[in-house]
Write a structure and sequence with these properties.
homodimer, alpha+beta, eight-stranded antiparallel beta sheet, 8 strands
Chain lengths: ~160, ~160
Amino acid sequence: MSKTSFVAEPGRQEIVMERRFAAPRARVFAAYTDPVAIPRWWGPRFLTTIVDRLEPRQGGIWRFVQRDRSGNEYAFRGVFHESLAPQRIVRTFEFEGMPGHVLLETVLFEEEDGQTKVTARSVFQTQEARDGMLQTGAEHGAAETWDRLDELLAE
Amino acid sequence: MSKTSFVAEPGRQEIVMERRFAAPRARVFAAYTDPVAIPRWWGPRFLTTIVDRLEPRQGGIWRFVQRDRSGNEYAFRGVFHESLAPQRIVRTFEFEGMPGHVLLETVLFEEEDGQTKVTARSVFQTQEARDGMLQTGAEHGAAETWDRLDELLAE
């Protein structure tokens, strides 16, 4: 059972995800900005993730490449608009296969009783773009990636 | 009377503006990406706009500084995520006085009978952020800046 709350209200153009992780927020924040940690949790388990760039500062680029077992590669990238440790990341997200399609993600890290509540709010250019993302199985993928993060933090 | 359509539907987190300009779209697009043209139309008339950076390519930075008569400066910046002449610009927009507050703007340029329809869609991190922008007089400011662009294109 997923512990990830995933909300995509009808008629809106955002997805809001929330989850509590049993770790201090400095550790959770670090997992988002550490090139060694990213391949261990970002994305689905059946793909290998390679960190090409990860520059968590205003104007910095991130670019991750996912590779499947046949060697096909899928690249994602974006720009950090803010990386304010340990509380907030604002960045864009693009799949390189769909240029011009961009989403804006705001990730908040809040500490509550030694645990960390992470809220990730993704806004899309249009409602249609958001609905298209939902049809690709975004909810399942998001839950899996946060399950992986939870496992990493439990080590 | 403004010829700018400005739509901010209740309960949503976007502003959609639209206007027809009496010029071919290559000229309208160029006005958006030309550092000489920008100070002549971008922003309200009572401020002086200085182009600090304008790099219309994926990952390129833009930064404009507005100066009032007392010498106070207000800086705006963002990142180009796409600049596909003459049809589409995707970029972010930030006021440097409010770090972490970012909007994502998609500008479409469509030619119709020798005129150009420009559609600018700005999406905000939250509905509250959009509503806050509306309260600053965004509609008046946007109409004025497009009036100025219209005048420039008519020269």
